[in-house]
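#help-structures
NK: newbie question, is this the right format to request a structure? protein is Large ribosomal subunit protein bL25
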Amino acid sequence: MSKNDFILEASPRTDVGKGASRRLRRLAGDIPAIIYGAGKEPTAITIPHKDIMKAVENEAFFSHIITVKVDGKDESVVIKALQRHPAKPRILHADFLRVSADQAIAVKVPLHFVNEDQCVGVKLEGGIINHMINELEISCLPGNLPEYIEVFMAELKVGESIHISDLALPEGVTSIDLAHGEDNNHPVAACVLPRAALEEEEIGAEAVEGEEAAEGDDSADSADDGDKAGE
């Protein structure tokens, strides 16, 4: 998929405010949105609800350059915020950030976990995979924006984790977390034993400790008996 496959038709919006937005959604089947950034004045627009609902069904919509057509002009943007209805499958508002070819942008892109079924910790050690994060905030030029970032899981063993610094980021792409220091090198995924297996290990360890303690007591009792017999 190319960087400009997402195209939304929009109309300028002059009637603003909460009341106007409610009327827009109820009567016209559109949603209010705004385009801002790149040193230009914000542009209030409306977008057909059905169009943006169809677009957001595709995961790539959130990590691609989007073309918004307004009054015959094309705006290159990325989605920055999406307000959804808390109970209904509806979008209420969208924020778009203008992009410039020579200015880096900060975008969250999805993580794709590869070869989980081939993971050493899962196949050979009875572990399961825990995902700590499912998307990563990155910085890059618009032309270098990846659709997703792969996390390779095949070599992961039980008790091991993959951190942000372990990810193979594409050329020209940096992690915003890591740019803030090593303290932000968060875990991405880990292979752990299922809870039942952990509980069995804990019970087994407690049993062994109990047996060792009992054996120690028996030895002490035997020594006491010997001392008494000598008396």
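mod (FA): yep, format's fine, and the tokens are attached above. The CA atoms of residues 35 and 96 lie 5 Å apart.
NK: thank you!
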